[in-house]
């Protein structure tokens, strides 16, 4: 049984991109001792200046940690950090809780959890998040968690430091399946919003007046409130990059295939994300899908 993890226990955080760095900072603010590691030490500078320790490798970071957290781009990155040379598995102690905040494939996640338990006696929780950079900064992320229930309970203090809505969904991989469901809903809804706005423009409607009208009815949604506004305003600066949404939609398609789900909306949304990245917009915000739909409709993109 893992012991409860409460401040001032040591937490190691591996992966300091926009999301990871903000989450690590909130863990430190909650009173945990923090050790960090990233491929680029420059990304750790602000955290080190605030008192975090630097580890030369994931193994070194894991050796003295009660909890190890990861936030990495994709499945191969997580496997390498866990089980590659100098990886977490070389240093982690029995009973340690490892929380993977990355969005990766569900089936490998379950395999990673089983391997970590067998080889090291440690617990792996998959906890992909939703809420974007703002949620990471404010500590209001939604955490979708799979894995051992006792490990989930033990790590409650860490989850409270980064998230507002934290839900245990089942065995290893369950969090990743839920995140795929989250992403397919968002991507499919962005596609629908992009088509709706293009339709309005082609029919001579003011797109912002149209958006406001739709917000007053049953079509109201987070996507209509936020992504559709970005489409109308011509915003391309990435809050969530199109290439990452493409990766997530590939994961959603794989999850649907694994579970035998008839998923035409997922297929279309994934196809459009492939087209969006192939149009040269991979580094832009995923809502740039609106510009692609406008172009394909014979319109000049907004902005």
Description:
β5, α6 (106-120) and β6 (123-126) form a beta-alpha-beta unit. α10 packs across α12 (222-233) and α11 (207-215) runs antiparallel to α12. With 303 residues, the chain is an alpha/beta fold. Helices cover 54% and strands 13% of the residues. It is built from 15 helices and 9 strands. It has helices at residues 18-29, 45-49, 58-63, 75-83, 88-91, 106-120, 132-138, 149-154, 156-162, 174-202, 207-215, 222-233, 242-258, 264-281, 289-296; strands spanning 10-14, 33-37, 53-54, 67-70, 97-100, 123-126, 129-130, 141-146, 163-170. It has 2 domains: 10-171, Rossmann fold; 178-296, Orthogonal Bundle (N-(1-d-carboxylethyl)-l-norvaline Dehydrogenase, domain 2), CATH 1.10.1040.10. It is elongated. It has a 6-stranded parallel β-sheet with strand order 3-2-1-4-5-6. The model has no long low-confidence stretch (mean pLDDT 97). One of its GO terms (molecular function) is oxidoreductase activity. Residues 10-170 form the 6-phosphogluconate dehydrogenase NADP-binding domain. Residues 1-24 form the signal peptide. This is NAD(P)-dependent oxidoreductase. Keywords: NAD, Oxidoreductase, Signal.
């Amino acid at each position: 049984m893992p012991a409860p993890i409460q401040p001032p226990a040591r937490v190691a955080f591996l992966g300091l991109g926009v999301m990871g760095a903000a989450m690590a900072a909130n863990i430190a603010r909650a009173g945990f001792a923090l050790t960090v590691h990233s491929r680029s030490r420059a990304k750790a500078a602000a955290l080190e200046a605030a008192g975090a320790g630097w580890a030369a490798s994931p193994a070194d970071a894991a050796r003295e940690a009660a909890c190890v957290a990861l936030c990495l781009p994709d499945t191969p990155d997580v496997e390498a950090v866990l089980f590659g040379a100098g990886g977490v598995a070389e240093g982690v102690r029995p009973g340690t809780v490892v929380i993977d905040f990355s969005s990766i494939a569900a089936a490998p996640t379950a395999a990673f959890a089983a391997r970590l338990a067998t080889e090291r006696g440690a617990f792996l929780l998959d906890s992909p998040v939703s809420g974007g950079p703002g949620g990471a900064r404010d500590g209001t992320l939604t955490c979708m968690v799979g894995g051992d229930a006792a490990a989930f309970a033990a790590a409650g203090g860490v989850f409270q430091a980064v998230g507002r809505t934290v839900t245990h969904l089942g065995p290893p991989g369950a969090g990743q399946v839920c995140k795929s469901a989250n992403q397919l809903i968002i991507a499919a809804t962005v596609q629908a919003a992009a088509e709706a706005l293009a339709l309005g423009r082609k029919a001579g409607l003011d797109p912002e007046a149209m958006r406001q009208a739709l917000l007053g009815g049953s079509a109201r949604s987070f996507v209509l409130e936020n992504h559709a506004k970005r489409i109308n305003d011509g915003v391309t600066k990435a809050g969530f990059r199109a290439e990452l949404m493409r990766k997530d939609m590939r994961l959603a398609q794989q999850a649907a295939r694994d579970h035998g789900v008839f998923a035409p909306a997922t297929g279309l949304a994934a196809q459009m994300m492939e087209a969006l990245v192939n149009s040269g917009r991979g580094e832009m915000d995923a809502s740039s899908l609106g510009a692609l739909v406008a172009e394909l409709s014979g319109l000049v993109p907004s902005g």
